[in-house]
Amino acid sequence: MKHTVAALVEDRPGVLNRVASLFRRRGFNIDSLAVGTTEEAGISRMTIVVDGAEGIATQVERQLDKLIDVVVVENLTHLDTVERELALIKVAARPDQRREILDMVEIFRAQVVDVGPTTLVVQITAAASTLDALLENLRPYGVREMVRTGRIALTRGARTTSLPHESAEARRFHSESGRRPEGELPFVGE
After folding, report:
1. Which secondary-structure segment (H or E) carries 169?
2. Consecutive sets of 10 residues in the chain, 190 residues long: mean pLDDT of each?
3. pLDDT at position 29, please?
4. In angstroms, rounded to a whole number, what is the distance separating the alpha carbons of residues 65 and 73?
5. Alpha-carbon separation of residue 170 from 156, 161, 167, 173, 189 (angstroms)
6. Angle at CA 105, nearest 5°, toward 104 and 108?
7. Alpha carbon distance 46, 189 (integer Å)
8. Residue 127 contacts residue 83 (beta carbons within 8 Å)
9. What pLDDT shows up at residue 138?
10. Measuring CA to CA, how many Å separate 105 from each of 100, 109, 120?
11. Burial readout 154-171 (b: 16 or more C-beta within 10 A, e: otherwise)
């Protein structure tokens, strides 16, 4: 089973390396790892998909929570979420096949973002299952190259994976310990 875990981490050099090292040391199998900025300055969001038994997500949560650069960890596996991946697919496209490919791309709500003499580059942002279905339909034409971002996810509705409200004492501890540079991170509730 695939498990999705979101982690808010400090946006500093070396954080991704520490997270990847933790996974390597513990023997967790990362299916995908997507990292990007968030609405909060100085904070990045990691969306990690791991493959394994039911308890693996709990283990991942506990291990990530021990890292000093990790601010919040949440298991999204059993929550109601919106999940997407982005893919670019370069497909062989003879002139007599282009109309068929364009029609298929339209059915999947994808886009052609580049046209070459013998190829088309298709971009799709969708749930993994939709992306997989488009890929299977393009394979008979000849997939020359492909890249996927990995899953990103947000919970539906008002629920958020957000920064915890911290007391003045906790903020002072984090600033003094070097865990959070003073003034670089807005805190929820201020």
Report:
1. helix 168-176
2. 90 88 85 89 90 84 88 90 95 94 96 95 95 96 95 84 58 53 42
3. 83
4. 6
5. 30, 19, 5, 5, 13
6. 90
7. 23
8. yes
9. 96
10. 9, 6, 11
11. beeeeeebebeebeeeee
Please report the domains of the chain, with CATH numbers, ordered by start residue: 2-79+159-176 (3.30.70.260), 82-152 (3.30.70.1150)
Confirm if 149 and 124 have CB atoms less than 8 A apart.
Answer: no
Instruction: Report how many helices (DSSP H) and strands (DSSP E) the chain contains, helices first.
Output: 5, 9
- C-alpha 144/C-alpha 90 separation (Å) is 5
Beta bridge partners of 49: 4, 32
pLDDT value of residue 123 = 97
Q: Cβ(26)–Cβ(59) under 8 Å?
A: yes
Coil, strand or helix at 33: strand
DSSP 58-90: HHHHHHHHHSTTEEEEEE-TTS-EEEEEEEEEE
For the full predicted model, state whether its pTM sits above 0.90.
Answer: no
pLDDT at residue 174, as a whole number: 53
